[in-house]
Amino acid sequence: MIFVTTSHDPTELQIKKAKKLADELGIPYLARKDHPNISETIEGEYCYVVEKSRIVIKSNNLEFFFHPSMAKVRMRNIQKGLKDHLIESLQLTGSETILDTTLGLGTEAILMAAFLDSGKVIGIEGSTPIFVVVRDGLENHMAKENWINTAMKKIQILHADFKQFLRSCPEESYDIVYCDPMFENPVFESSSMNPLRPFAIYDTVNTDDVDQMLRVAKKKIVLKAHAKDSLFRRIPVDRIFGSRRSQVLYGVIEKR
Fold first, then answer.
1. Among 205, 162, 165, which Cα is nearest to 181's?
2. What is the DSSP string of 84-120?
3. Strands 55-58 and 63-64: what pairing?
4. Which distant-in-sequence residues (6+ apart) come within 8 Å of 144 by Cβ?
5. Are residues 186 and 240 in the same domain?
6. Fewer Cβ atoms within 10 Å of its own Cβ: the N or the C terminal residue of the chain?
7. d(CA 132, CA 151)
8. Residue 21: pLDDT band by 50, 70, 90 thresholds?
9. What is the mean pLDDT of the chain?
10. Domain co-membership, 166 together with 87
11. pLDDT, average across residues 60-80
C-alpha cells in the first residue's frame, strides 16, 4: 500500500502538508497515531512520511530523502584546485539556462547552479517519488553552506517524462541540455545513489533523443555515462571529459 503519513506527534503544519500531498498524488492519508508501525501498513510498497523538516520515503528496507552531500564533496574538491569534469565540460559563462533532463537527487544541478550568476537550471524528473522528495528538498532544505542555499534557489523542478518534454520544447530554448541517464553498469559503492535506485527511471538515450536535445540547445549538449556503458559507442560525441579512476565520463556535442 502506498500512502502519506507523518512522523510521530506531528504539528498541525505537518498534517496539513501531508494531506495536501495525499490529495496531489491521489493516495490515502493515514494518521500516524492510528498507524504507529508503518512497516506493517506498507505491505511491500512504500509511504511518504512528512517529517518536521523534510519528506522521507520509507519502505521495509530503505529510507530515501533529499541531501546535497555529493555536491558539497565536489565543490570542496573544486575549491582545493581539483578538476570537476562536469563543470569542465560545460565551460559556463554564468548566464546560461541549462535543461537538466534527468534531475535525480539534484546533485549536479546544484553544482551547475553554483556557477551561474544570472542563469538557472530547469530540472526534469519523471519519477513521482523522486520528484516529490527533491522538490520539497529544494524548497525547504537549509544547508550550512550558503552557496548551496543560493544554488537551490536557481533550480526549477518539473515533473515530466524528459523524452516527451524535449519534443514539446521550441527550438533553441535552452543554452545547454544535460542528460545523465542511469548507468548501465551501476556504481553500487555510491551510497548516495543506492536509496534512489528502486524509484529511478531506467530509460536509455537514443539517437532521436539526442537529435531533440540538439534542436532544443543553443550551444551544446552534455551526456554522462559510465566508461563501460554503451552510450558513447552508440552516440558519437565531439569530446569526452572524465577520469580513468572513476570511469565517469561526460561527452560533449557542440551545436553547429
1. 205
2. -HHHHHH---S--EEEES--TTSHHHHHHHTT-SS-E
3. antiparallel
4. none
5. yes
6. C
7. 19
8. very high
9. 94
10. yes
11. 93
Query: Mean pLDDT throughout 219-231?
Result: 95
Q: Is 73 found in the same domain as 59? A: no
Q: Among 189, 224, 194, 201, which residue's Cα sits nearest to residue 124?
A: 201
Instruction: State pLDDT tens for residues 129-145.
Output: 999 999 999 999 999 99
Considering 21, 42, 64, which residue would you say is the last residue of a domain?
A: 64
Lowest mean pLDDT across 166-170, 182-186, 190-194: 190-194
Report which secondary-structure segment, H or E, holds 209.
helix 207-216
pLDDT at position 194: 77
- Sole residue written with cell 535525480: 104
Residues 154 and 136 in one domain: yes
If phi > 0 it is left, if psi is from -120 to 50 it is alpha, else beta; for residue 43 that is left
- Number of structural domains the chain divides into: 2
Residue 213 half-sphere exposure, CB side, CA atoms within 13 Å? 26
| Beta strands, E only, 43-199 | 47-50, 55-58, 63-64, 97-100, 120-125, 155-159, 174-179
Under the banding of pLDDT at 50, 70 and 90, the label for residue 246 is confident
Arithmetic mean of pLDDT, 84-101? 97
Please give the residue range of the domain that contains residue 199: 69-254
Same domain, residue pair 159 and 195 = yes
Q: Check whether residue 41 and residue 119 sit in a common domain.
A: no
The residue type found at 247 is Q
User: Which DSSP letter does residue 218 get?
Assistant: E
Whether 84 and 125 map to the same domain: the answer is yes
